[in-house]
Design a protein that fits this description.
Helix content: 10-25%
Strand order of the largest sheet: 4-11-10-7-8
Oligomer: single chain
Number of helices: 4
Radius of gyration: 38 Å
Number of strands: 11
Order of helices and strands: EEHHHEEEEEHEEEE
Distance between the termini: 101 Å
Structural class: alpha+beta
Strand content: 25-35%
């Protein structure tokens, strides 16, 4: 039976092996898979696109210091008889009048001295230092308010309220010396790192170090450290 120069019988169709530059297709598929799987794993780890699909919600309480207990004055209980109360009242009235007369004679200008020596009492409870509303940056969305406080014990903190942000990888809360309208490059040029963003939704607190000058670092930034990009900013106004 006649054959062609390639050794194939006449009338038979020679087998076709798909290849690229002489490399069999099966080997090409194995090589492609060996590259694609690690590449996909890197993308998921580095870019974290899955973070856009999930929210991390928090709801932290405002850390208000408890009020000091007030000691009850001695003899304040109401178990004395009416006669004893009246008698003691007369004695106290007489003693007070005598004391007032003695003070007036010894120091007629004592009222003026007392007024000049009066000191305004320190405010009780947390003191608001500055507050502002978030503005969205780039292609992200951030809403809510940021407020800095000084607590009764002298500690300062930044509180985010009604907060909601686009989620993403490697998000941090910064206090920066730049203004909200500056470019991203200015936000991490001079800043204070308050820590990773606790959650992209909800109320949350961040401690401000005691040595931070809030007159200088008066802008809050939600900052993506991995891609050096701001998600949202808020200027703190006294």
């Amino acid at each position: 039976m006649p054959t062609d120069p390639n050794g194939v019988l006449d009338g038979d169709t020679p087998p076709i092996e798909r290849s690229w530059r002489g490399i069999p297709r099966r080997r090409l598929l194995l090589a492609a898979g060996g590259v694609a799987v690690p590449a996909l794993a890197f993308v998921l780890w580095w870019f974290e696109p899955q973070a856009l699909l999930f929210d991390q919600a928090v709801d932290e309480d405002f850390p208000i210091a408890s009020a000091d207990e007030v000691d009850e004055a001695p003899g304040a209980s109401g178990d004395q008889s009416g006669d004893d109360s009246a008698a003691s009242g007369d004695i106290r009235d007489g003693e007070e009048e005598a004391a007032e007369d003695a003070v007036e004679e010894a120091a007629p200008d004592a009222d003026d001295d007392t007024e000049s020596a009066e000191v305004e009492p320190a405010p009780s409870g947390p003191v608001e230092l500055g507050t502002g509303s978030f503005q969205s940056r780039n292609r992200y969305t951030v809403t809510g308010n940021a407020t800095s406080y000084e607590l009764e014990d002298g500690q300062r903190l930044l509180r985010l309220e009604d907060f909601e942000s686009t989620n993403g990888p490697d998000l941090f809360v910064y206090l920066t010396a730049a203004d909200a309208g500056d470019d991203d490059a200015a936000f991490d040029a001079d800043f204070v790192d308050l820590g990773m963003l606790t959650g992209n939704i909800g109320n949350q607190n961040y401690v401000i170090p005691t040595d931070v000058d809030l007159d200088r670092y008066d802008t809050v930034v939600i900052w993506c450290r991995r891609f050096t990009s701001s998600f949202g900013v808020a200027d703190l106004t006294p």
